[in-house]
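Discussion board: Methods & Data

I've been asked by a reviewer to show the raw model output for two of the constructs in my manuscript, not just the figures. I'm not sure how much to include, so I'm pasting the format here to get opinions. Each protein appears as its amino acid sequence followed by a line of discrete structure tokens. Is this the kind of thing reviewers expect to see in a supplement, or should I convert it first? Here is construct A:
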Amino acid sequence: MLRFLLMAILLTFALRMVSRLADEFMRGMRGEGGGSRPSVPQRGVQMVRDPVCGTFVVPERAVSIVEGRERIHFCSTACRDKYRARTA
């Protein structure tokens, strides 16, 4: 009897999970989003390349220095320090 009860509970949870999965899939196909994932931006974001390691970074979040009239962007302070050591 206990085995039957546990199997019934397990089957109920499994069916509910499959139902929710199918519902979320259909909502996604209709474009209703609402999930926890961020939406895809409608336009691209301009990025710059770190001259030391080659990583692309968003200029607003980058560590930057000004050399002459040029602003140079880095992914981290470590890359900035390596660049300064090479050019010094």
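Construct B, same format:
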Amino acid sequence: MLKPFRPCLPLLILVAILTSAGADDSDSAAKPKILRDVPYAETTNPRQTLDVYAPAEGDKHPIVFWIHGGGWEVGDKTEVERKPQAMLDKGYVFVSTNYRLLPEASIQEMAGDIAKAIRWTRDHAAEFGGDGDRFVVAGHSAGAQLAALLCIDDRYLKAEGLSPSILKGCIPVDGDTYDVPMQVATVNQRTAYIYRRKFGDQESQTALSPVTHVASGKPIPPVVILHVAGHPETGPQSRRLVNALRASGVRALAYPALGKDHSTLNDDLGTPGDLPTQVVYRFLETVFKK
């Protein structure tokens, strides 16, 4: 059985253990490096850990950093379906992070957790063959809002001593809270109450809306938003953010996925022949070009 990660164990030694355990030298050479439950915030909180999936060989692999969904209340970094293998097949490192959830943490604190996870990943990128200066941040549902917020409101990365220039792209998937006050104003009363409970008062809703922080001249990376075609909430929210980004000179696209629902759009990413997956691949190839 593989030993769990401990911060005091040098990461290169851990990689050797993980890639060699249970296999001879000829087999291990082709296996990816997988690190699980890595603490990124100097705590023992399992919600502040991440998993790394890296190609077996080479270095300077671009990094796709994934944020799970779950309504800011549930969800886990292991809920990645086909994504790790799909990204490995393309020569990318795939990182999936946990973060504290409601009610333990506010949404602002969740964003702070994710910034810490990005910092850890950048600090250790060379040790598992990654390029710490080439990140794309992506996420589904609640993770889409957090991904967009991290990529557009650069205060979270700066608080961790990181330059926003390390972010080369952003892929939010079927989020409905890029403009939280707009969402609260357009849904039914019961749903609006749920969003107020999670996001707080009008001032807090505005501060946690990615669209609030769009401005000309900011170092915002290119953005591709995937959303379910015809969805009455994620469609307008996606177009709202894309229009704001374009007006500020940022490359942005909203892709309406036909024949998908909120779950299958996420679950099918990485599946051969999946059209949203092809959109993601083309975007990654473009933004990761040196």
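Answer (T.O., handling editor elsewhere):
This is acceptable in a supplement if you add a one-line summary per construct. For B, something like: DSSP finds twelve helices and eight strands in the chain.
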